[in-house]
Amino acid sequence: VQVLPGTAALRHHRRLRPRGTGYREHMPRSLWNGTITVGAIAVPVKLYSAVESRTVHFREVHLPDGAKVEHRRFCSAEDRAVPYEEVVKGFEVGDGEYVVLEKEEIAAAAGDPAHVIDVDAFVEASAIDPVFFEKTYYLGAGEKGADAYRLLHDALERTGRAGLGRFTFHNREYLAAIRHLDGVIVLHTMRFADEVVPGAEIEFDAPGRGPREREVEMAGKLVASLHERWDPGKRKDEYREAVLEMIERKAAGKKPKRTREKPPEEAPDLMAALEASLAGGK
Question: Cβ distance 179 to 144 under 8 Å?
């Protein structure tokens, strides 16, 4: 088992495994301060990240000496590394031809830089398919905005609706939906319709015969038998845990565990598979 120079310290690295979700080393900082406008009503808000990535990140390391590998900006024509100030953003319009945009021009295309979420419509929150949601943020009450915030939250909760609007964030305009969740207002940045691939465009083999009524009935029973109340804490990131365990074992000079599940066997008979599933088989 090979441990590169410096990795032995992992044995004593207290942050190797992420702490539980209830632990935070510091209070989250707002990413954006602005105002929700609904008609003549203004609701001061602060934007916070609603998710925290727990992905295991790796660095590229030079195998012979364990040194970190660096990536540099490199000019293919001059065959040399170039400083950051000489790098601009270009859109390729032809073979080797680019239209270059300055930072100010890109910012101008982002829309109104005012920190406003202008809600212009409300829809049934349940009518928005999750495929349109991109990223999720919490909205907290801004300065002197607690009363207006609570009013908007309670209205969203009572009606079951989500507000739709646009706002500019990180020099880009986003479509956004706001709705209530667990006593706070959440904001979802959303994908536009032309960014979502219609299912009808996916090519796959045409199905054979349609399922028989008895098969559909038994499949419905199988779904019902596996029904449970949604508990997000019940599902854990088993891949991350396996990777971290492998890192710990290698850092300690032990061989990593290797487990492979057998692929499921294809059922020769659909009805028999349904009957076995309902009986508790696999």
Answer: no
Identify the helix (H) or strand (E) that includes residue 49: strand 41-49
Contact (Cβ atoms closer than 8 angstroms) between residue 194 and residue 158? no
Question: Residue 148 — left, alpha, or beta (φ > 0 → left; ψ -120 to 50 → alpha)?
Answer: alpha
54 CB burial (10 A radius; 0-12, 13-18, 19+): exposed
pLDDT at 204 (0 to 100): 78
Q: For residue 45, what is the enclosing H or E element?
A: strand 41-49
E-state strands within 56-215? 74-75, 80-81, 89-94, 97-101, 116-124, 133-141, 161-169, 172-181, 184-190
CB atoms inside a 10 Å sphere around CB 265: 8
Alpha-carbon radius of gyration of the chain? 26
Angle between helices 270-278 and 213-225 (to 10 degrees): 30
- Could you tell me the two tokens for 152? 């908007």
| Residue range 66-116, pLDDT digits in tens | 899 998 899 989 999 999 999 999 999 988 899 998 888 887 777 666 799
